[in-house]
Design a protein that fits this description.
The chain has three helices and no strands. The protein is mainly α and 96 residues long.
Length: 96
C-alpha cells in the first residue's frame, strides 16, 4: 500500500499507463497479424495497404515507447520480407 500522497499518485498513474499500453499492444498485435495474413494472400493491393498500416502502427508504438524501436524495426523488416517473398512466389507461376 502506498504510504504517502506521491506514492498514491504514482499508483494511479501506473495503472492508467498500464491500461493504455495494454490497449495499444493489443491493437498493434491485431494489425501485425492482419498484415501477416494478407501478405500471403493473392490480393497485392490489400497486402500493400496492410503492410503500410502495420508500419505506421509500429512506428507510433516505438515513438511512444510502448515497444522498443529495434522490435518495431525487426517486425517491419520481417513483414516486408514476407510480402516480397509472397509477391515473388505469385509472380513466378504467372510468368511461366
Amino acid at each position: 500500500m502506498p504510504n504517502n500522497q506521491n506514492a498514491r499518485k504514482a499508483v494511479r498513474q501506473s495503472e492508467k499507463n498500464r491500461l493504455r499500453n495494454r490497449a495499444a499492444r493489443t491493437t498493434l498485435r491485431n494489425v501485425v497479424r492482419k498484415a501477416r495474413e494478407l501478405a500471403v494472400a493473392p490480393d497485392a493491393a490489400a497486402a500493400d495497404s496492410a503492410l503500410r498500416l502495420a508500419a505506421k502502427h509500429l512506428d507510433r508504438a516505438a515513438g511512444k515507447h510502448t515497444i522498443h524501436r529495434n522490435k518495431a524495426a525487426r517486425l517491419k523488416s520481417r513483414l516486408s520480407k514476407l510480402a516480397k517473398k509472397a509477391a515473388a512466389g505469385a509472380a513466378a507461376p504467372a510468368a511461366q
